Amino acid sequence: MNISIDSTDLPVNSLYINQIRLAGAEVFSISKWQNGVTARIAFEDTAIIMPQLRNFNFISKIEYTGLDVVDVNILNSNANINMSSANTQRANYGDGLAQLLQLNGKPLHDMGFRGAGIVIAVIDGGFINANTHIAFDSLRLSGRLLGTHDFAYRTDNVFCRSTHGASVLSTLASNVPNYLIGTAPDAQYWLLISERIQGEYPVEADLWISAAEFADSVGADIITSSLGYTVFSNSKLNFSYQDMNGQTVRVSRAACQAAEKGIVVFNSAGNDGLSEWHYIGAPADAMKIITVGSVNAMGKISDFSSFGPTADGRIKPELCAMGYKTAVADCTTNDQFTNGSGTSFATPVLAGMTACLLQALKANNIAYSSEIVQNSLKVSASIYPQSTAQEGFGIPNFENAYNSLMYSQSVEVLKNEYIIVRNEGNNILINFKNKNLKNNISIFNATGQILYFISTKKDEIAINKNVFSTGILFLKIENKQFSCMKKIIN
Fold first, then answer.
1. Is the N or the C terminus of the chain less surrounded, counting Cβ atoms within 10 Å?
2. Which CATH superfamily is domain 97-406 in?
3. Mean pLDDT of 4-17
């Protein structure tokens, strides 16, 4: 993606970390993106250790992130893997069909784009029975479960504590014909835990950052997260609506950084639409990511789906998917299916279809960025360019997004004896092979309004796309020998 290496790709200075350790603090997690650490200090040692930390000239800020409860009984699931096979190419989606059709994602599946070769990191609170449920037989047997890690308890066992993450995973990775086929049944997965058991504290947001940085390090194409932070066990630590500006809260800044590293990041809007706090939380307020709201099978917004905009006025959520009575695996068992409601399920449904879109782009050698992909989904959505505070631009249409990217991002040769048209960064570049012809070049919008015109004999011109509004544009080139047209998504 030609993303430059910068200081956030460098490790935190080891001398700083060692000095913090020598002062008596346990370094619990390290964030290179935020250039800091989360450290654990026993209560009785704070009076001795904290003054030392405050005296270090390399520390710019210290913030309390909450009580750490360590004497918990972790529910552990170590059952043998169920070896029954559900690996089939038959496209009988069972109850998962509605959530796929709503996104118009089946055309991509029918073309063979089911997420193969795309790495998805699922950040959640626990994956009980994801190692035994029949929904994931295909995932396990094909070796596409790439790995696991629990950043809260620093272990690789994630098949514990909660079924939430396993149910989330099932909307993506399930492959049981007649019952449930997920939106990305052929993708590869990392399962990552960032939640602790007892209480809710900002330290969990720090652990989310650790999980996101790890996802970047193992080459994740997509992060899907159904977590959010607003209210904590210690009310003094609560975030305010004014904090939901994408800049104030660390985890939101980190989510934005993940997108800047080339990862397409999805986060649930939250389920507070009916509560006094009815807004999105963090990192749902992050810039450069897709925040996902919930609709029912008919496309009607779910009343529980949290509202935007962000405190600084940005549209959030941007998109919606089916989050009411979504088909999921019942991960309290090993072979049953059910339905669940929440933006927690809308988010992975959408993330999974995006994996199929990325596979299609890679298969066609089409260069893309997180920003390009997100913009194509927004433009394809059901109420774009209009938006509402609860549903953003609405429900994306993946066939339309695919078609628009195929038209607008490929290096396309038109009438190759005369002309080459390609996209590079913010420019449309046009090369004329026959240098003796006068060429008329025009750009107009979908209503036929001419936005740009030039008549030239130059053999190469560059047109800056930034001068045009976002949306679908048409490029027309004509001379005495030929005429051609190209659709562009701006």
1. N
2. Peptidase S8/S53 domain (3.40.50.200)
3. 93
